[in-house]
Structure formats: C-alpha cells, structure tokens
Amino acid sequence: KSNVIIEMNFLTSIYRQVKKFENGGIMVKKVILYFMTMMLVLGMATAFAAENADAPMTMKEKMEKIRLESDPIYVAEKAKRMENMPKVAVLYVNNAETTYNDEVDAMVLGNLEKCISDDKYIYINGDPYIERLNKVGIVDITTAERADIIDAFEGEDVDYVVFVEVQPFIARDKITFFTVGKDITTTVPLKIIDLVNGKYLYNGKFTEKASDSTMIGGIGNKSVAMKALRKIDEQIASVLAARLPEEKPVLAAAAK
After folding, report:
1. Which residues contact 157 (CB under 8 A, 6 or more apart)?
2. Other beta carbons less than 10 A from residue 194's beta carbon
3. Which residues contact 51 (CB under 8 A, 6 or more apart)?
4. For the chain, where are the alpha helices, taking DSSP H only?
5. How far apart are the C-alpha atoms of 106 and 98, rounded to whole Å?
6. How many CB atoms lie within 10 A of CB 29?
7. pTM of the entire structure?
8. Residue 202's Cα: distance from chain center in Å?
9. What are phi and psi of 163, to 5 degrees?
10. Parallel, antiparallel or unpaired: strands 180-194 and 160-166
11. Separation of alpha carbons 18 and 57, rounded Å
C-alpha cells in the first residue's frame, strides 16, 4: 500500500507537468500519460501481490482446523503419530536491531513453523535453552562449539536442534541522476544438529542483498530488508526440507 501511495504522489507531480504542456504537442502529452498509466498499474500490481503473499489463514481454513482438532478419531491418530515424531527445538535469535523487530520475528518464525510443521514434527520453543547457554557465558551462539550446544540439552527429550539468527541489517543509500534508493544486506546463520548422534546436519549461513528505488520521495529500510529476508526464508525452507529428517534419529554404532 505504501508503494501505491508513493506512485500516486509521483503521478500527481507528472500530471502537473502534463498541464504545462497544454499548449505543446499532442505526442508529448500522449507519451507522458502512457508513462503515468504504466507506473500506476505496476505499483498497484506490486502492492496487491505482496498483500496476497502474506494473506492470513481464511475463516474457512480456521473452521476446518478447529473441526479436525475436535474430532476424537483425528486426535487419537495424531497422538499415535506423535509418538514417532522427532522433537525439534528451535533456537531463534533476532539481532537485527530494528524498529520493526516484531515483523521480522513474525516472518522468520512463521516460516520455521511452516517448515517444522506439526504433521511431521513436534516443535519445541528453544528460549529456555538459549538462557542456559547465556548463563554459562555463551551469548553469541553462532560462535558456540557444537558440544556446548549439545550440553545445553543434556537430559532433555529432544532429537534435533535448529538454530537461526537474524544478524544486523547493513543499509546503503544509492543515488542516481533519476532515482534514489537503498541496498540492504542481511545475513542469517543456520545450524541443524542431531542431538542423539552429536553431529551437524547443516552448519552454514545465508547472505542476501535486496534493492529498491524510486523516482520521487524516499524509501524506508523496512520494505527492502523484508525483501532480503524473504529470499533467505526460501533458502532456509529448502535446506530444512532436505536436511531435517522426518524420523527420530537412531544412535549410530560406534566405529571399531
């Protein structure tokens, strides 16, 4: 919606310029009016696409979920499935240091909940384990040894750990003769640990840069940062689908 407002402001200024050409050539006015129309259509299409992409669950979907969860047969079958479901603790840290941290949290955690869905896994909030690590002096979990993370789960009935951290966004303004804009780079480390066998299933990080520009007005950091974060969410989803097993881990036999 903010993009549409920017585009409308831009189009208003263009329209004022068209009025100045009332005594000018018809071709000049046609070109400018065509440009106005295209900018409006593109701006509205972008806004509507973003709105639809983030659309919440519909009332019909909510009612169906409630119906299923109140069905005794469904509940019994789910309980049986849960006995064999792997338990996954999600350690999430937001160090983005923004004024829109809540929206960053909603995007990243929402993506993780979709990936670690309750029809395949038992999702466990990892905040208590982050506190344990902090108490023993491990504040930056990205630099923690694998053994330190595993120790924080000693005696716990957890199969896998997924660690995700949103690091501070790096913003850079860019100005050309016609436009002003922003480049924002974000980095998100991801770790997946098999606690039963004490090994990494994945240990890496994703870095993405997103850009945006306009011919009038300014662009805030938020829209560009969220665009970069959305790209990283897609990569995280791809890695989790490939590397996070859908079955409980089995202790591997020790090498002789």
Report:
1. 87
2. 21
3. 1
4. 2-20, 26-53, 59-69, 72-83, 101-115, 127-135, 146-151, 221-243
5. 14
6. 15
7. 0.69
8. 19
9. -115, 130
10. antiparallel
11. 44
CA distances from 176 to 97, 173, 182, 214, 216 (A): 28, 10, 11, 10, 12
- Indicate the burial class of 103 (C-beta count within 10 angstroms; 0-12, 13-18, 19 or more): middle
Tokens found for residue 40? 């409006």
The C-alpha atoms of residue 115 and residue 93 are separated, in whole angstroms, by 17
Burial (0-12, 13-18, 19+ Cβ within 10 Å), 59:
exposed
Look at residue 235 and give its three-state secondary structure: helix
DSSP per-residue codes, 122-149: EEEE-HHHHHHHHHTT---GGG--HHHH
For 98, 176, 225, the CA distances from 181, given in Å and listed in that order, are 19, 9, 13
> Per-residue confidence of the chain (256 residues) as pLDDT tens digits?
444 444 445 555 555 555 555 555 555 555 455 555 555 555 555 444 444 444 567 888 888 888 888 888 878 877 777 888 999 999 999 999 899 999 999 999 999 999 999 989 999 999 999 999 999 999 999 999 999 999 999 999 999 999 999 999 998 876 665 556 788 899 999 999 999 999 999 999 999 998 775 545 445 688 889 999 999 999 999 999 999 999 999 988 754 4
- Alpha carbon 66 to its chain's center: 27
Between CA 241 and CA 245, with CA 243 as vertex, the angle to 5 degrees is 85
Pair of tokens at residue 112: 């993780």
Residue whose structure tokens are 């890695």: 239
Task: Give the Å distances, CA to CA, from 46 to 51, 149, 181, 212.
Answer: 9, 42, 17, 12
